[in-house]
Task: inverse folding
């Protein structure tokens, strides 16, 4: 592993082992590149993304925590503060020449206590091997119970949005975040308009089928999955997105969102895990 710094001071860690490579920013413990050796990257990263203090990278895997989506208090950041906070890099372990595990940590500070009134410990373990594993463990270090919503907000790179399908969510109920209606999925998901949905009761593997590859996602500690593509108009309104960006990305987010919010008692933990291959 190598520690790197951009001219503006933005720090990240580069990992290379016998089978894969990855890049993780210290801000947000934000994984923004992962590829198997000799293969195309799995994650999408905006060509015009900011690598700047206080701004979330557009692409990779932002960590939405301790709330997913907007906060009732509109002055607070969308998707929580974890993705724009500086994390501590705890350690890296090379389990063998094909497996590197990196651990990052975030704990409450005066600043976080002002906007979210609980003491916590958040640990992210990223395993870089021939598959990608991310495990986000929340421990309640407060005396009071707290409730979180969260997501590993994975942006996948796709050959073209019209050529992909998501399998594994047939018959699942979902909240359509564009209409706030509850609906039910019929068959595979394909894309020809803006999609922003929170699927519920998900326990099986999800498959992103592209022209020349399939990505398999298996979540643990999660029964909700967000599927999102901003399409044409929303892309124009978004930060750090080129006009045609929506054609080459698709978010499938491993989540605890809406009905799947998790209450965590004092000194107890909850882990949200995604295995992607
Ligand atoms: C998704 C939401 O998870 O994140 C979308 O479902 C939202 O509604 C998107 O637009 C991106 O959010 P942000 O804050 O990174 O622009």
Result:
């Amino acid at each position: 592993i190598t520690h790197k710094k951009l001219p503006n001071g933005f720090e990240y860690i580069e990992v290379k082992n016998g089978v894969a490579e990855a890049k993780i920013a210290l801000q947000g413990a934000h994984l923004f590149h992962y590829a198997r050796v000799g293969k195309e990257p799995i994650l999408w990263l905006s060509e015009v993304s900011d690598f700047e203090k206080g701004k979330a990278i557009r692409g990779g895997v932002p960590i939405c925590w301790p709330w997913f989506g907007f906060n009732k208090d509109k002055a607070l950041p969308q998707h929580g503060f974890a993705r724009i906070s500086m994390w501590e890099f705890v350690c890296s372990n090379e389990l063998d020449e094909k497996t590197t595990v990196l651990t990052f940590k975030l704990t409450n500070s005066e600043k976080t206590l002002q906007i979210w009134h609980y003491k916590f410990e958040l640990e992210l373990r990223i395993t870089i091997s021939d598959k990608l594993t991310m495990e986000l463990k929340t421990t309640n270090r407060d005396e009071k119970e707290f409730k979180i919503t969260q997501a590993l907000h994975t942006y996948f790179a796709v050959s073209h949005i019209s050529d992909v399908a998501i399998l594994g969510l047939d018959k699942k109920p979902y909240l359509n975040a564009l209409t706030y209606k509850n609906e039910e999925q019929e068959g595979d998901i394909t894309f020809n308009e803006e999609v922003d949905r929170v699927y519920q009761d998900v326990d099986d593997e999800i498959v992103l089928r592209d022209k020349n590859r399939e990505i398999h996602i298996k979540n643990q500690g999660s029964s909700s999955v967000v599927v999102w593509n901003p399409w044409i108009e929303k892309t124009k309104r978004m930060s750090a997105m080129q006009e045609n960006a929506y054609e080459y990305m698709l978010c499938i987010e491993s989540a605890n969102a809406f009905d799947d919010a998790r209450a965590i008692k004092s000194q107890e933990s909850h882990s949200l895990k995604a295995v992607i291959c």
Observations:
- Residues 2-276 form a domain with the Beta-galactosidase; Chain A, domain 5 fold (CATH 2.70.98.10).
- The chain has a mean pLDDT of 98.
